[in-house]
Design goal:
3-stranded antiparallel beta sheet; alpha+beta; 7 helices; 201 residues
C-alpha cells in the first residue's frame, strides 16, 4: 500500500483502529493512536504479549500543525464539551493566549495545536475526554499530528482512523528487526509526492 509507513505498539489490539478513552499520563501529545517511525520504540509499548501493528497513513493526511480555527470557536467548544476536565482553567488559558499573542488578537484565528497543547498541559483529556477532543479536531480538518521529530524517531498521533490506508498486525517472524528505522515522516511525504522516485523505507 502506498502511504506513510508507521509502527504502533499495543498491549491489547482487537478490531479496527479507534480512538479510545485515555488514562492520565497516556496522552502527552494529545488524544489519538500513537505511532512511530522506530520499530524499537513500538516494541517497547508492546512488551508482555502485546502486538506490533504496521500502519500506512494516507499521504494526503491533514496535519494539526497546519490548521487554525477562530479563537472564539475554541473557547466555545471547551465550555460546551461534555467530558473535558478542568474546563474553566483551560478556557481561561485560551483567553490569555488571545491577550498574549498579537497575531491571534489581530486575526481572531488561533493554531489548533494551541488547544491540544493546553489541554495536555492541564491534564484535561483522561477518560472519554480523549475521543471527544479527537472528534472535535477531526471536525476542524485535523486528521493527525506530527508531534515529535528527532534524530531517533518521529511520533505521529492519529485523530482520524479514516486517514489510514491500511493496518496490519505483524507477527515477530514477519518483521525485519534489523531495519529498525523507517524514514522520517517528512521524507516519506516528499518521496511519495515525487512520482519518479520510489518510496523511502
Amino acid at each position: 500500500m502506498t502511504g506513510i509507513r508507521l509502527w504502533h505498539g499495543s498491549q491489547r489490539w482487537t478490531g479496527w483502529p479507534e480512538i479510545k478513552a485515555s488514562k492520565k499520563g497516556q496522552y502527552e501529545c494529545g488524544p489519538g493512536i500513537y505511532c512511530t517511525t522506530s520499530l524499537n520504540t513500538a516494541r517497547k509499548y508492546s512488551k508482555g504479549g502485546g502486538s506490533i501493528i504496521e500502519f500506512v497513513l494516507s499521504p494526503d493526511t491533514n496535519w494539526l500543525e497546519d490548521i487554525s480555527i477562530p479563537h472564539a470557536e475554541a473557547i466555545a467548544w471547551v465550555k460546551q464539551a461534555h467530558h473535558l476536565h478542568k474546563k474553566r482553567i483551560l478556557a481561561n488559558d485560551l483567553v490569555e493566549v488571545f491577550d498574549r499573542r498579537e497575531q491571534v488578537r489581530t486575526s481572531g484565528m488561533m493554531p489548533l495545536s494551541y488547544l491540544v497543547n493546553l489541554a495536555v498541559n492541564h491534564e484535561c483529556l483522561s477518560g472519554q475526554a480523549a475521543p471527544e477532543m479527537a472528534e472535535f479536531l477531526v471536525s476542524k480538518g485535523a486528521q493527525a499530528s506530527l508531534c515529535k521529530q528527532s534524530s531517533s524517531d518521529d511520533w505521529v498521533v492519529i485523530f482520524d482512523p479514516k486517514a489510514l490506508v491500511s493496518f496490519e498486525p505483524r507477527k515477530a517472524k514477519e518483521i525485519d528487526w534489523l531495519r529498525d528505522q523507517l524514514a522520517p515522516v517528512r521524507e516519506q511525504i516528499e518521496a511519495l509526492s515525487a512520482p519518479s522516485q520510489a518510496p523511502v523505507f
